[in-house]
Specification:
By secondary structure, the chain is of the alpha+beta class. The protein has three helices and five strands. The chain is globular. The termini are far apart. InterPro entries: DUF559, Endonuclease_DUF559_bact, Restrct_endonuc-II-like.
């Protein structure tokens, strides 16, 4: 999914959540991934990462982490009362 100048593995635009699934080659590109994550967070995205072997061997745990992250989404600011409203 294109997000700015990057391609996200999975992105839920309405939730501003990006899920990245990383293989072993990402261990060699930590600085790039950090800069990429910093950019995405600056654009208002939340980014969570999983290793391929976590997805393959612990899918329930990965799904639970995604669900927890979605539940942690801050609720919208309450509407301001108009001046003079009760």
């Amino acid at each position: 999914m294109p997000v700015g100048p990057y391609i996200a593995d999975f992105a839920a635009r309405s939730e501003k959540l990006i899920v990245e699934v990383d293989g072993g080659h990402h261990a060699e590109h930590e600085a790039y991934d950090e800069a990429r994550t910093h950019y995405l967070k600056a654009q208002g995205w939340r980014v969570i990462r999983f290793w391929n072997n976590d997805v393959l061997g612990n899918l329930e745990g990965v799904v639970a982490t995604i669900e927890r992250t979605l539940a942690e989404r801050p609720s919208p600011s309450p509407s301001r009362l108009r001046e003079g409203s009760p």
